[in-house]
Amino acid sequence: MGPPLQMVKKTSTEETKAEKTPKKSAVVYIGHLPKDFVEVQMRKFFEQFGTIKHLRLSRSKKTGGSKHYGFVEFETPEVAEIVANTMNNYILFGQKLVCEVMKPADIHEDIWKGENKRFVRVANEPKMHELTKDTLGPSLESRILYNKKIQEKLDEMGIAYDFLKKQIKADEQLLKKIDWEPAPKEDKEKSEPKEKPVVKRTLKKAEAQ
């Protein structure tokens, strides 16, 4: 038998190399995502914290709709911890997020399967023969108002996101193109019945007494 093995202390050079060696990435689970907060919005939002290696939103296989939870892999575990601590219980568009760093043992090997798959929204879209001036106008106006509210919230949070601005501009141009205007609202003063002069005189007499 040879001589017994001895513990060898790391030199300062080896310790420095170990410190410079990049640590493994980490995955954050994000639950209770808002309805229209999908891949594009997720990437824009979470890129503020650090470099994203992978991102996947869980979707229904039948409809392609969001299941309201997803996974984001950050380049360093430090960034992942910051995201989990900062965004857990954060109210985003009325939804309280659930964020936590996943343990390596809980990460499935197919977790990123389909992350680059593109989805096109087709549900609840009017058919081509239904796209008349009266059906398209209200739909566009409603979408413009909704997108403006979301854009205001993003601006308040300091998120530079131009996609909605472009969408709003395109919808407004389309509204002008189809020459659609919302129906005028009824004037409340005109719709309310006027008080009879007799009632007014009675009130004046009562006040004088």
UniProtKB/TrEMBL annotation:
Coiled-coil segments: none
Keyword RNA-binding among record annotations: yes
Keyword RNA-binding found: yes
One GO MF term: RNA binding
CDD domains, A to Z: RRM_NIFK_like
Ranges of Basic and acidic residues composition bias in the record: 11-21
Subcellular localization, as worded in the UniProt entry: Nucleus, Nucleolus
Keyword vocabulary terms for this entry: Nucleus, RNA-binding
GO cellular component entries: nucleolus
Pfam families recorded: RRM_1
Region (Disordered): 1-21, 179-209
PROSITE patterns with a match to the protein in the record: RRM
All residue ranges annotated as the RRM domain in the record: 26-104
PANTHER family: MKI67 FHA DOMAIN-INTERACTING NUCLEOLAR PHOSPHOPROTEIN (PTHR46754)
Protein name stated in the entry: RNA binding protein
